[in-house]
Design goal:
151 residues, mainly alpha, 62% helix
Length: 151
């Protein structure tokens, strides 16, 4: 009976020792150093990090524009590309990633680029209808007054 307890104590102490040593090794491992060049973050507008609050009408307009964009792109695709495109949209993958995976030819790429530019302009127009005069100016410079400065 005492031999079994000695064996158990020996196994337990060995496991404990290895666990302690491995824990020390893990803690002593070097931390990966981020890139040596600092990354500059620029802010294009005072509200760029704030969530955009859209009205229900704006949400609907963007949804309609997105559906039209997708229909226009589907019209350009061959059947196998179309199947892959629809499946990717169903799984909510990003459109740019999906388009890269479709192996589009040069003509298709140009047409898709045009469709995406049109869509982006539509969304900007919808969003600009929400912006107030204070937030629509990206650098914070007010427009000059119509009266000349008195000296």
């Amino acid at each position: 009976m005492s031999i079994n307890s000695i064996k158990r104590l020996s196994v337990f102490s060995t496991i404990f020792t290895f666990a302690t040593i491995l824990h020390g090794i893990v803690l002593a491992a070097p931390v990966p150093n981020p890139s040596p060049t600092p990354v500059l973050k620029t802010q294009t507008s005072p509200t760029s990090h704030q969530p955009i609050k859209l009205t229900n009408q704006q949400r609907l307009q963007i949804q309609v524009a997105r559906q039209q964009r997708d229909k226009d792109i589907e019209a350009l695709l061959n059947p196998s590309q179309d199947t892959k495109f629809k499946a990717a949209l169903q799984s909510r993958q990003r459109i740019r990633i999906v388009l890269k995976s479709l192996d589009l030819n040069q003509d298709q790429q140009k047409q898709v680029q045009s469709i995406l530019q049109t869509y982006n302009l539509q969304v900007k127009k919808i969003l600009s209808s929400q912006a107030s005069p204070a937030t629509s100016n990206s650098v914070g410079i007010t427009s000059p007054t119509s009266q000349p400065i008195q000296k």
